[in-house]
Amino acid sequence: QVQLVESGGGLVQAGGSLRLSCAASGRTFSSYAMAWFRQAPGKEREFVGGISWSGAIASYADSVKGRFTISRDYAKNTVFLQMNSLEPEDTAVYYCAARKYVVVVTTNYDYWGQGTQVTVSS
Asked: Is 30 helix (H, G, I), strand (E, B) or coil?
C-alpha cells in the first residue's frame, strides 16, 4: 500500500515558478514509477510528466516540455515537480500518482494523491 500527499500548490503570476512535492509512504517507493497529472475544470485529467522507478528516465507532455522538471529523492520518499515559466493554461489541480516500475501516459495508476491547486494569473 502506498499513500501519496501533495503539497506546494498556490497562486502565482504568469512567468513565475512553483515546486510541487509528493511525499510517499511505504517501504517500496523505489520500485514505483511516479507521475504528475493535472485536471482543469471541465476537462479530463491529463498526463504532465513521469519518472521511472530508477529515476533514469523522465518523460513529459509536449505542453510542459522544457518548462517542467520531475525529480525524485529516494531518501525522502518524495517526488518533485519543478514548474517554471508558468502560463495561465497551467491552472489546474495537480495530482501525484504511482504504479509499478514504468511510466504510462494514461491514468492507469494504482495510487493517487488528493491533489493540490495551482492557479496562474495573467
From this structure: helix
